[in-house]
Amino acid sequence: MARALLIANPAAARNRPLAVRAILDTFRSAGWDTELAETSGPGDARVLAARGVDAGMDTIAVFGGDGTTMQAAASLVGTGVALGVIPGGTGNLLAGNLRIPLSPVRATRALLAGQSRRFDLGRVERADGTHYFAVACGAGYDARVMAATPAALKRRWKIAAYIATTFRLMGELRTARHRISVDGAEFDAEAAMVLVANCGEVIPPFVRLKRGIRPDDGVLDVVVIRASNFRQSVRAVWHLLREVPGGHVAWARGSDIRVVSEPAEPVQLDGEPGGTTPFQATVVPGAICILTQ
Q: Kind of pairing, strands 82-87 and 59-64?
């Protein structure tokens, strides 16, 4: 009998506790021996996932947002234990990129019918240890928006809360001088935002960073966006969506990315605060197994 540990984040999970009960019932009706563990604070998901690995679980399923999912994923790197993604947070960007249904029950059914596939992760070393990202990390305006979006609004409005904050902070949009190294090749850029992407979509399936960005290609993609006012930001989004070379957007690709800025800029890792620049991101090819169709 397959064994699964379901990690749920009560602060993020939608329609809790009914949704958690429905997820457990779906697992058990499929013949899975499933245990529930709930987080109560930062870092809990990583600890709970590690315990699940030690207990011999076949799958660690996470019902929560990208932050909780990536905490758990950090304990699964290199283990072969599969991650099950059940979206229950604000952005759910990983689930969106993998086309996992937003409904908890439908996501669980897709997980049960799926196969274990290996995906890359990005790795960033910070003062408090090693962090991983599945979708993207970034410095600048995106990190500022995520930090400035109140938790209460995220719980109520989901990804629309981030969009509202984006427009609210538009007057504070500015560029900073960046020195970016991609596999040892350095270049300078005046940028409002520098993204290091493992997945191709930031608002799945509507906003794509560039065609060809995949979480299983063994590399990371750098997206540099230059804009210092509302008009330029509109043009930058247009250039991004149309993949216009030059102009307000530039792209690069590599396995080892270092970003330095003047002044220091805030950093986010899959939507979670990640300190400030400088940072270095490296790809970990095939780092984790995820159950997906």
A: parallel
